[in-house]
Design goal:
By secondary structure, the chain is mainly alpha-helical. The chain has one domain (about 1-420). Helix content is about 85%, strand content about 0%. It has helices spanning about 1-40, 40-65, 65-75, 80-115, 120-145, 145-150, 155-180, 180-185, 190-205, 215-240, 240-250, 255-265, 270-285, 290-320, 320-325, 335-360, 365-385, 390-420. Helix 17 (about 365-385) runs antiparallel to helix 18. The chain is globular and about 55 Å long.
Length: about 425
Amino acid sequence: MNQRLKRTTAWICLLGTVGAAQILTQSVGFLCGIVIVRWLAPNEYALYTLALTMTSALNVLAEGGIASGLMAEGGRVWQSRTGLGSVLATGLALRRQFALWAGVICAPALAFLMRSHGVSWGTIAIMLAALLANSWLTMLNTLYGIAPALHQRIFAIQNIGLIQGGIRLAVLGAILYFWPLAGLAICATIPPLFWSLTRLRHISQGFADFHAPADERVRRSVLAVVKRVLPGSIYLCVSNQIGIWFVSLLGSTHTLAQIGALGRLGQIFAFLPPVAGALFVPRFARLPAESRIVLVRYLQVMALMAFIGCTATGIIILFPKPVLAIIGSHYADLQHELILQMICSMLWFLAGIAYNLGCSRGIVVKPFLSIGVQVVCQIALVTILDVSSLRGALWLSIIMGIVQLVIYAGNVVVTLLAIERQI
């Protein structure tokens, strides 16, 4: 009993320390977002929202499940410098291939959407260049963050994130004060990403041999995960932003700016995925292959994240006016929409945690089942809801968030229970 109490106390202290540091880091990121939404005119912020959405889609396609496969493989050889180096080398080779195809798909899509809002070709070229650079640096940051995460260098990772946020805030302030343009707001992310990459790469050198060759066995194993994850990732890059896509194609630029601004407030949950990614996912990946232990830990993490998410949502729902004042007078009348956005953000956050935990153990829902159910739901919802309006788009995202949470969490639980019955 005393041992359990000590372990629980240690976890609470660790979670509190990591959480506090992550809150500070995400607060800087949140402040960056507020600077952007307040200093850009609504029409410029609408363009920034489009570019940011396409950046997310590009990152999802370029990742394609590779990080999950690498984390699972790295969890098996994390104590071997050569083995971990081979895992990273294999991941880097795969990432180059995936990034190329992702750029070919996403660049024309962004150009089309921006031209539909009357954006000049010069501005589109700047945004595309910034978007591709941003995606490439983000990809490398993720790759070189695997080794420190597996070795639980949590505070070093968080220090890098905090300094990166500070650099971004300084660059944003210097640029947008004089030139409040959406394209330059995207460009401001490049210097801090480059700086964090150099730091993560330096730390990774202590745990991984960068001269180790790529491993064909690791490549096959990672691609096996990718084959299960990629169809869902492709669908995910569309469904996660489906509300914004419909508003962009069917709604007005003003409505697009509104949904983007509310999305900024939804970033209150942004500090939780990095905490889970640094603290829970690597440890979850390293758990012994005992289904009962894995299931218990999975339910514990999901329950904790749900409690935190519901608490944060409840606080914001109680005080909508002060929260809306943060993003400026252009959006002061969106109190009801703010509530919908907070619920939506919480659900998508929980679905993401459920998905990432499962992937770290190689438990991935069959694409035809996941995508099939979601497509049927979306078709039904599009016929019922006015998806060109702000509220309609938010309700669509809320319901799809519920569907994804049920699918991803249910798949992990059912899979682990089935393994337990077979033992």
